[in-house]
Amino acid sequence: MNVAVMKTKAEQAISESFEAAAAKLPGSAPVKARRAEAIGTFGGLGLPHRRIEEWKYTDLRANLKEVLPAAVEDKTPLSIGELIVALGPLAHVDAHRIVFVNGHHRADLSDIADAKGLAISTIGKALQSASEEAVASLASTPAGGDAVEALNTAFMTDGAIVDVTKGASIAKPLLIVFVRAGSEANAVTVRNLITVGEGASATIVEANVVLPGAVRDAHLNVLAEVSVGKGATLNHVRSAVDEGKSLHLSNCEVTMAVDATYRGFQFSSNLGFARHGANILFDGEGGKLDLSGAYLARGSEHVDNTLVVDHAVPHCESRELFKGVLDGHGRGVFQGKVIVRPDAQKTDGKQMSQALMLSEDAEFDSKPELEIYADDVVCGHGTTSAELDSDLLFYCRSRGIPEKEARALMIESFIGEALDKVEHEGLREALASYAMQWLGRSPRG
Amino acid sequence: MLEIKNLHVKLEDEDREILKGLSLTVPKGEVHAIMGPNGSGKSTLAYVLAGRDGYEVTDGDILWNGESILDMEPDERAAKGVFLAFQYPMEIPGVAGLTFLRTALNSIRKKRGEAELTTPAFLKLAKEKGAKLNIDIEMLKRPVNVGFSGGEKKRSEILQMGLLEPTLCVLDETDSGLDIDALRIVSEGVNALRSPDRAFLVITHYQRLLNYIVPDKVHVLADGRIQKTGGKELALELEKSGYAEYSNKAA
Questions:
Q1: φ and ψ of B59, to 5 deg
Q2: Could you give all domains of chain B from N- to C-terminal order, each with its CATH number?
Q3: Which residue has the higher pLDDT, A238 or B176?
Q4: Nearest chain A residue to B87, by CA
Q5: Lowest-pLDDT range, A96-100, B46-50, B173-177?
Q6: Of the candidates A403, A406, A417, which has its C-beta nearest B94's C-beta?
Q7: A153: exposed, middle or buried (C-beta count within 10 Å: 0-12, 13-18, 19+)?
Q8: Element at A188 (helix H, strand E)
Q9: Which intervals hold domain ABC transporter (chain B) (predicted)?
Q10: If we measure between CA atoms, which residue out of A319, A346, A344, A197 comes closest to residue A264?
Q11: CB distance B104–A400 less than 8 Å?
């Protein structure tokens, strides 16, 4: 039977954009085959919309009307000075860094010379020469992947491949920096592959930043595939800061081995329309997960954090804390699914999602989902949404603190509880500075 | 000088009048106590002086140094020297005491046209003033008042007062919830601030506090008005006879 699938204009345009870009996208023949396959998968799925349960509050189809050309190449000039401006507070963090501009690696801006214990290469290069065997790990769409992940396979141009050597303890964080710059509105698609070897520990930041003055329209699709080895620890900060108009789609697929620790943090501010997915699989006993985040949205901005934590094995612990500040018509979406499989006894899971509503028109949609099939577990979840406490405001103001500053102080204190989950002090302070910038305050000197 | 003239106050969303023509004058350098039964309007007076939302002044005026403060925001009043020590000091989770104090002090200094204090200068000052109230720097690194005992909260109020150096200090039931040692420390803190440039309005239900903070005058507030004014001996009288006489008058 032939089923005629009705395509929206945008879906049609995405397929056409792929046809136009395919020849210029990096990749060996097996990679090209995977890309073609992925665009076919996308064609079948279409853009997710509100009648798909997982996308009920984040109607991508309705919000992706105009398709931007794929950023298949980039010649935007960017100096070190401009990179520092784009990084803002993150520039103060003493870190190794690998830099991509509009989805293309820039060795001249990167600094990974003394990154002992880290093997760093790029996806762009790896795709060029990928064999049939290599393609499975380099250019596949994660199992159960959705349309956004399929598009990532189809369009990805570059990204970082990071291997943390077994047993290595990396003191300095590694920044994987994606800079938006230039005057051409385009769609940037990148992927990072992060593998943390047995017993190793590292702090890795995916920083999406924008050079002030860059075109405000932009589409970003970022996928991270992360594997945390036995007894290894990864602190993984994903930060996206833009200028209020961009469309950010990101996904993070994490597999945790026996006794692995993964501390993920998602920071968002000034994103036009964003959906951050995180899928975590406990693949070995004794895993410890902290998945937290903070987001700030105003105007008509939209930020969605959708998490799936799969307790597939016993004796694992998960903690989730997300805090959002919503002003104007800003909208926050939190979907937190925790699956406890029948064998996953002694699972300890806690989830909390809180929103601070600064205006009458702000909206917060929170959907905790606990699917528990084991009977000896401790699982809890909570959601709150509240306005600023007027008694507290009065207290601050009676001490001479002007209203604007008193409000900012209280918002900082609200968001601070989530930021405290970031263990690295410099990174925590950089994110706090981003939050203060959003509040219109200069970072504390 | 604080001049409260024929002050009428009602709750914004209720028609009940709470202060019904209260008049009172506190010259600089003096400590005046306001005593009264529960529900007489003591806390309302404190909040209206500090500029809290939710109250409507329907008549009368409050002048501080000859200037009406009724149209001023709470932070403007603070910059003019008005300070209210709360009966129930607020907890501010996530904001370190030092951050709060420094933000407050520098806001006020800025409004007064003074230079902001640097971090080291501020820390030195906070340490010095805290020591007198048994508040060490570790306590100030913790979030404001979070997990503090009743006594610690009141001491932290007095520390704020000492740092901000207001000229009109309103103490709302500062003795409530204090044991005798805490009462002594808090009172010493207040007494240390007594000066010819500063006026105090000490609101209390009990005479006990006035053994430690000896007032120049005592006013009895009942039914939204000052019913009687006398010297410190009036407090002792009230302790003996209670407020029945004034409550009857009110009824």
A1: -160, 160
A2: 2-250 (3.40.50.300)
A3: A238
A4: A395
A5: B173-177
A6: A417
A7: buried
A8: strand A187-196
A9: 2-248
A10: A319
A11: yes
DSSP string, B52-77: -TTEEEEEEEEEETTEE-TTS-HHHH
- Work out the pLDDT band at B248, boundaries 50, 70, 90: low
Q: Tell me the pLDDT tens digit for each residue of A71-120.
A: 999 999 999 999 999 999 999 999 999 999 999 999 999 999 888 999 99
Q: Cα–Cα distance between B26 and B42 in angstroms, integer?
A: 16
- Residues of B near A (Cβ–Cβ under 8 Å) read 50-53, 73-75, 77-79, 83-84, 86, 89-90, 92-95, 99-100, 103-105, 107-108, 111, 143, 160, 164
**The two three-digit tokens of residue B32, written as one number:** 């005046």
Separation of alpha carbons A54 and A308, rounded Å = 11
ipTM for the predicted complex comes to 0.95
Nearest-Cα distance to chain B for A420, in Å, is 10
Count A/B contacts: CB-CB distance under 8 Å: 76
What confidence tens digit (pLDDT) does each residue in A12-61 have? 999 999 999 999 999 999 999 999 999 999 999 999 999 999 999 999 99
Say how far apart CA A121 and CA A226 lie, in whole Å: 15
Inter-chain CB proximity B94 and A414 less than 8 Å: yes
Q: Report pLDDT for B251.
A: 42
Nearest CA in chain B to A388: B92
Q: How many CA atoms lie within 13 A of B106 on its CB side?
A: 15
A394 in B contact zone (CB under 8 Å): yes
For residues A401-412, one letter each, b for 16 or more C-beta atoms within 10 angstroms of the residue's C-beta and e for the rest, the string is bbeebbbbbbbb
B52 to chain A: closest CA residue: A394
pLDDT band at residue B199 under the 50/70/90 scheme:
very high
What's residue A146's pLDDT? 92
Give CA–CA dist A195/A240, Å, rounded. Answer: 22
For residue A89, give the DSSP letter. Answer: G
Are A372 and A341 in contact by the 8 Å Cβ rule? The answer is no
Q: How far is A387 from chain B (nearest CA, A)?
A: 15
Start-to-end C-alpha separation, chain A = 68
CB A244 within 8 A of CB A173: no
A174 touches chain B (CB under 8 A): no
Q: Is 80 exceeded by the pLDDT of residue A1?
A: no
Partners of A353 in beta bridges: A322, A383
Report the residue from B50, B90, B107 with minimal CB separation from A401: B107
Reported pTM: 0.86
Q: At residue B38, does pLDDT exceed 60?
A: yes
Which residues from B are below 8 Å from A401, CB to CB?
Answer: 75, 103-104, 107
Partner residue facing A392 (CB), from B53, B92, B164: B92
- Contact assignment for A412 to B95 by CB distance below 8 Å: yes
Q: How far apart are CA A343 and CA B87, in angstroms?
A: 54
SS3 category, B173:
coil
Residue in B51, B52, B94 closest to A416 by CB: B94
For an interface test with B, the pick among A325, A354, A398 (most B C-beta atoms closer than 10 Å) comes out as A398
Measured in angstroms, the CA of B121 and the nearest CA of chain A are apart by: 14
Structure-token pair, residue B45: 């007076």
pLDDT number for residue A349: 96
Which residue has tokens 């601050």?
A: A396
Structure tokens at A348: 């300890």
Provide the CA A117 distance to its chain's centre, in angstroms.
Answer: 25
| Residue ranges of domains in chain A | 17-284, 389-445
Rounded distance between C-alpha atoms, residue A202 and residue A95, angstroms: 12
pLDDT at residue A140, rounded to an integer: 86
Beta-strand pair B217-222/B199-204: unpaired
